[in-house]
Amino acid sequence: MLNLLRKDFIALKSSLWIVVFYLVVFSVAFMPKELSMHFVGIYTAFASVSLATMIDSKNHNHHFLITLPISRKHIVQAKYIIAIICTFFGIFSSYGIHSLVKLAVPELNMQDYSIVDLLIPTGIVLVIVSIYLPLFYTLSKKGTHIINVVFLIILIVLAHPAAYVMNKISEQGSTSDTLLFFIPIGILLLFIASYYLTVHLFTRKDL
Fold it and tell me: What's the distance, CA 43 to chain centroid?
């Protein structure tokens, strides 16, 4: 398991400049708009996850890994852990950049951020990953390119509806507290179910 994680870290380290490029581009595109911290974090996190899967697909890593004494369950498990790490990296990098800009350029009157502003984009990315990874492990190399493009389009199209929903959640007061209790549980259950589904699909897949 540790070697699988190390493999992904080495691959992502060599492509770290791409992730930083995504972070800078998204920050310039969205800042200082309302909810820009959310969107920069979401796009950067998913771009990092997508990059990790594309490296596997491009280098045919799975074809090599299944010849080793490694269970497919551990291969999938490592990718889900990497997805969680990429999610936290994207969200906290966005939070760090927005906090620095807020201090350096107070004239922009950027909003203050709370723990909810970190939880909301984290939950959204985990939901996206829960849908994305089963598709990645089911489809072929060509299919992976297609779903990456499709998910990118979906993220762009749903930007404004998502902003509306996030604003509504933040405006609901006590009702929001109730939602913040149940929504993370639902997201966690979805993520766990996605993992077991992916293990099942990848185990049955003929490579």
Answer: 7
For 100-149, the pLDDT digits (tens) are 888 888 777 777 787 878 888 898 899 999 999 998 888 766 677 778 77
List all residues 6 or more positions away from 76 whose beta carbon is below 8 Å from its beta carbon: 133, 137, 195, 198, 199, 202
Spatial CB neighbours of 160, under 8 Å, sequence gap ≥ 6: none
Residue type, 66: I
Cβ-proximal residues to 144 (8 Å cutoff; 6+ apart), any chain: 53, 54, 57, 136
Residues 175, 110 contacting (CB under 8 angstroms):
no
Check if the beta carbon of residue 82 is closer than 8 Å to that of residue 5. yes
98 and 22 in contact (C-beta within 8 Å)?
no
Query: At 12, which amino acid appears?
Result: L
- State residue 14's pLDDT score: 78
pLDDT at 26: 86
Answer for the pair 73, 153: CB distance below 8 angstroms, yes or no. no
The neighbour count for residue 94, using CB atoms within 10 Å, is: 29
What DSSP designation does 71 have?
Answer: -
How much helix, strand and coil, in percent to the nearest 5, is found in the chain? 85, 0, 15
| Model pTM score | 0.85
